[in-house]
Amino acid sequence: MTESSDSSFQSLSDELKTEFYTSFKEAMDELDNCFTTLNCRYDTETINEMFRAVHSVKGNCHMVFLDPIADVCHKLEDIVHQLRKGDCLYTPAQGEFMTFVFARLEQLIASVISGGSLSLKGTQVLLEGVAQVYEAPMSSRDSVIQKTLDSFSGILSSSDDLSDKVLVRLEKQALRGSFDELEFMREISLLTQAKSIQLQGNRDKLLELCLTVNQHMPLPVDEGQLSAAFHFQILGARFISSPVFDVTPNSQRWEREKVQQQLELSAGFLRLGDRWLEAAEMIQQSFERYDGQGLIGLEKDQIGSGAMILSLIRFYRQSFYKLSKDNRTKIAVSKSLSRINSEKGYRFSPQVVEVFNQLVRNDLLAVTF
Length: 369
Prior knowledge:
The protein is mainly alpha-helical. It has two domains: 173 residues, HPT domain (Four Helix Bundle (Hemerythrin (Met), subunit A)), CATH 1.20.120.160; 186 residues, Hypothetical protein af1432. It is built from 16 helices and no strands. Helix 2 runs antiparallel to helix 3. The longest helix has 27 residues.
């Protein structure tokens, strides 16, 4: 913001400044309502309401000479326009990102209203971060959003101006932008499965099945975290002699120790940084049982739904492949489903089992390989 823009804004009446700020807060509330709706279900009109809210803020900022803030809103508007055109799908991560950006814009606006100057670097940070999210392909957008929020770390809560530090983080992020961590994990997963009896491509189908079950859960976990846990869950077994692929209440002590080693190795790779800690926890819990007879002894709600999904899909995969050798596909699915339901409330969460049952009823092809 130039000195003339500063003076132009400060020359406005207190009544107009208050009206502008009130309008901005109302737009934030409208966006929050939109995100709440879209986190539950997709709705075209809600997407249009998002666009109108952002567009309105952009126009109001131009009217009161806050052009740098209007530039940030314009780039956010471009993201919402992608949603309107169907170029990408809304995800909760996008709502979280926009909420953060608007919270920071509110801080900058409040500072100007109180008589301060609008830091050009303060808006430059947001503009750079929003631009990186806008340019990210849909397949990795949520991952880029998380990295950008990590780069933004501290700017909402710190009393110091962290703009220079954040710009350096964003620059490094941009340099690493072509590296897709989840795709790398997928390649590692495929390499470790090279000698598997599974047909090529089945891991992608299994991952799709995990994500579909997750999407139908009342409180879905982060898809990126679930994908990372799926890719790395068997990695530890490749470093353990005589790995164990299941734990039952009757498993021997040595079997439990082997599984513990496998999980610690798999989760350990993800714990090398802070980005995939949730995925590491899913792996660590993936041999738990709903009845508390699993590896560590967690039970019911103590076990994350992501871990329960991994556990159920692993069980289904093993059962389906075994049964499909001697049975037709529909019979293999039916018998596998029967086995899963017999473990409902014992091995598996009833909620996850019900979601899986519904998925099979609606789309048999989704659970065949």
